């Protein structure tokens, strides 16, 4: 195979990881990243580095589970775990999907309001209809390319904003590897973590990986695992760049000038006079694409979770499939229409994801360790111990987050 043919084959396998990347460049990330950058400057950039490294390991395991078993994580949990445990996990994941959908719909709604001055509920309604239309009317591979195009637009917008605001790279770069956290920043740090390592994305990756012809023999699966790794590393690397750019822009524009940001709308309004009208427009434009694209991938995960745990086929022609695309949108839309504080609910939604995460990670670790299920693809000692340490870290941070929240940040 020459270089051109190899490059063409690699490109044909790119896609599943990028659907996951859209999920962690969603409006929930905007809220937590703006909060992190505006309140603590560059201090929390290390959380992006840590969470992305964790994400690469976890998402690769989820994809490998899908490749090795030919089934999604949801189906594997239903088949391998006791019914009460599987039901509990399924309910908590649906709850996490609701929290995710709140962030996605709010982001799209806020973006439409910033661009066209329409009511928040109207923007949310447009976002719902756009995501349902895209999911139901498009073939999977075409939808995948559309989402990758959306991701490209978001990335270009933030690269342009970095050029506009001219950050202090000397201060920013060390923060990628030097941890800094305290009782005041732990809530936001956990929000950032929850916004990057997301439960529904783990379920989604184990499912969308089936869109590729991985083969049925262990030998072919083994040879093709490298393409999954290239896809995951490339996609997660892009996600790190965009998430870090969000914090850097907020730190440079808001924290440097001592500006207190209380909402995404305020961030847009404040960004325009401080960094120029083009920066404000790019912010709103990217937010619309972020809200719509992440809503689509969120709904794809919801459909898989609901059909998988119920033991039903994931068929776009069925009523269950179509209804599942609306399930979590209904409570999310009600919350938006009720006039809640959009900024606080966005950050809270990310914390909910972070708290649910162990209930997704632990089953994933157990399943990937079972040789009866995974065969030769079962987790090695190194992979299992690394993933176990990641899960333990998340659980400990969750406990600290709850304590810090109860004590008013005086942990």
Structure description:
The chain has 411 residues and is mainly alpha-helical. It is built from 19 helices and no strands. The protein has helices at residues 3-13, 16-23, 27-40, 45-69, 73-80, 83-116, 120-137, 140-165, 169-172, 186-196, 199-208, 218-255, 264-275, 277-310, 319-327, 329-337, 342-369, 371-374, 381-406.
Defining key terms:
411 residues; mainly alpha; globular
Would you spell out the secondary-structure blueprint of this structure?
Elements: H1 3-13, H2 16-23, H3 27-40, H4 45-69, H5 73-80, H6 83-116, H7 120-137, H8 140-165, H9 169-172, H10 186-196, H11 199-208, H12 218-255, H13 264-275, H14 277-310, H15 319-327, H16 329-337, H17 342-369, H18 371-374, H19 381-406
Helix pairs in contact: 2-8, 2-11, 2-12, 2-14, 3-10, 3-12, 3-17, 4-10, 4-11, 4-12, 4-17, 5-14, 6-7, 6-14, 6-16, 6-17, 7-14, 7-16, 8-12, 8-14, 10-17, 11-14, 13-14, 14-15, 17-19
């Amino acid at each position: 195979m020459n270089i051109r043919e190899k490059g063409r084959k690699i490109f044909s396998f790119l896609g599943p990881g990028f659907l996951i990347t859209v999920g962690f460049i969603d409006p929930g990330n905007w809220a937590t990243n703006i909060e992190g950058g505006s309140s603590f400057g560059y201090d929390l950039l290390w959380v992006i580095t840590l969470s992305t490294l964790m994400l690469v390991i976890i998402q690769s395991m989820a994809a490998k589970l899908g490749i090795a078993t030919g089934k999604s994580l949801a189906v594997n949990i239903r088949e391998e775990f006791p019914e009460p445990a599987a039901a509990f996990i399924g309910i908590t994941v649906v709850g996490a999907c609701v929290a995710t959908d709140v962030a996605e719909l709010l982001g799209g709604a806020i973006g439409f309001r910033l661009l066209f001055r329409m009511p928040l509920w109207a923007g949310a309604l447009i976002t719902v209809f756009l995501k349902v239309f895209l999911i139901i009317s498009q073939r999977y591979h075409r939808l995948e390319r559309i989402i990758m195009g959306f991701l490209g637009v978001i990335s270009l917008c933030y690269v342009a904003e970095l050029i506009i605001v001219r950050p202090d790279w000397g201060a920013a770069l060390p923060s990628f590897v030097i941890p800094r956290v305290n009782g005041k920043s732990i809530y936001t740090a956990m929000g950032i973590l929850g916004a990057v390592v997301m439960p529904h994305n783990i379920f989604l990756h184990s499912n969308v990986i089936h869109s590729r012809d991985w083969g049925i023999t262990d030998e072919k699966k083994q040879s093709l695992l490298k393409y999954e790794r290239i896809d995951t590393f490339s996609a997660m690397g892009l996600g790190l760049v965009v998430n870090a750019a969000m914090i850097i822009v907020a730190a440079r524009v808001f924290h440097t000038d001592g500006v207190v940001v209380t909402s995404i709308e305020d961030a847009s309004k404040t960004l325009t006079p401080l960094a120029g009208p083009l920066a404000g427009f790019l912010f709103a434009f990217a937010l619309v694409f972020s809200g719509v694209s992440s809503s689509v991938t969120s709904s794809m995960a919801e459909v898989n979770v609901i059909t998988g745990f119920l033991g039903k086929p994931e068929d776009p022609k069925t009523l269950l499939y179509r209804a599942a695309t609306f399930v979590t949108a209904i409570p999310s839309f009600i919350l938006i229409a009720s006039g809640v504080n959009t900024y606080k609910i966005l950050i809270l939604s990310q914390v909910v994801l972070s708290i649910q995460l162990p209930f997704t990670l632990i089953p994933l670790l157990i399943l990937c360790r079972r040789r009866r299920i995974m065969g030769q693809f079962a987790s090695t000692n190194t992979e299992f111990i690394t993933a176990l340490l990641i899960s333990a870290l998340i659980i400990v941070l969750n406990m600290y987050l709850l304590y810090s929240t109860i004590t008013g940040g005086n942990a």
